[in-house]
Amino acid sequence: MDEHSLVTYECFCCxxxxxxxxxxxxxxxxxxxxxxxxxxxEIRGSLGIECYCSELCLETRRHDVMxxxxxxxxxxxFGPIEACAKCGGLVDTTEFHLTYIEHEYIVGVVAQxxxxxxxxxxxxxxxxxx
Length: 130
What we know:
The protein is mainly beta. It has two helices and eight strands; from the N terminus they run E-E-E-E-H-E-E-E-E-H. The chain has helices at residues 55-69, 124-127, and strands spanning 9-10, 17-18, 21-33, 40-52, 81-83, 90-92, 97-106, 112-122. Strands 4-3-7-8 form a four-stranded antiparallel β-sheet. Strands 1-2 form a two-stranded antiparallel sheet. A two-stranded antiparallel sheet has the order 5-6. The N and C termini lie far apart (36 Å). 25% of the residues are buried.
């Protein structure tokens, strides 16, 4: 444990206290803006569901977390239209939609994202029941 760290987390898998590098599963409300160059993601809100001290702990809990959320893991692509993880219906990702994400970031004065992977996206109808 870094004694100079301002934030301490407790791993939801192994109960270890940790800081600096965080692995997390979160639920977010976002949309993708396609334009010239790389697409941009606008995030209106995000809620961390669980955080972990390592990728191994995240992988250990991933299935159970998504089961608790009632959402199957169906990793979407990165297009303007994707399939809903629950019903297979269309999700217009250019409009705000519910996402489930796992990501790794480094905590500091400003959090720095290292890696992000989508677990699922939900359509308008299914997000009401998530």
